[in-house]
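Example (one chain per record):
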Amino acid sequence: MKHFRSNSKKSLLSLGELIALLLVTLVFGVPLLFVFFQAGKTGPEAALQQFVPPRHPQYLTNLQEVLRTSDYMMVRAFINSTVLTVFSVLFLIVISSMAGFVMERRSHRPVVSAFHFVILSGLMVPPSVITTIWILKALHLYRTLPGLILVEIALGLPFSVLLYRAFLVTIPRELDEASFIDGCKGSTLFWKIIFPLLQPVSTTILILSGVTIFNDFVNPLYFLPGAENATIQLTLYNFISRYNTQWHLLFANVLLISIPPLVLFIFFNKRIVEGMVAGSIKG
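Predicted structure:
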């Protein structure tokens, strides 16, 4: 009898998992499939907005047209977005890991407590666009990639610092003391001993921040205007106007710019889970 009940519970659990998988497939799979269908249609066929495969697929033609539009703006946008993402994530990992280490090891100092308050404020207080533009203009960084990189770092810093600090609790302080006894200085201790141990958190921030910054639409629109400075998401405006929208090219553009983040996520999604779980359980 007990064996029968146990098998029934397992069957119910499997049924629940099956329903959850079907729901997830519907929520995420249907929109992706719709984009894929639309990207291969002709202009009049795509304008009907029907969830059916293209009658005469022309994926290659549409993708070539997307790349040629506005004097190859898509190529410039890929370069700009890649530079923006790489440098933003690189500086974000370096700065937030050092800040998290200092905040964890010197948590009782008044200056560190004040910095912790500022970090928490950064999570709760929304950024002011007008003030940020005013500061960037004063620094002669408005409409420049370095200016937008600073904005992306500032927006991602609070979450990254807290993630590093939570994970650093799992690293015993005795390791610091043993390193100092062996003659290590502060910088040597951090870069040669502590920083390699932070790899799960660094990988998590690399993927989450990388995908977020690469797909960012709002910040480049405000802080990096202009066709020469276009990032990958702003190329969608090439096919939208007040009186005419080229739906087949718009969806081909969406399909093209979705490939890099999707590939990154497929290869590193296990690392994201490992980093988040390691910091949450041991912290």
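Caption: The two ends are 43 Å apart (CA to CA).
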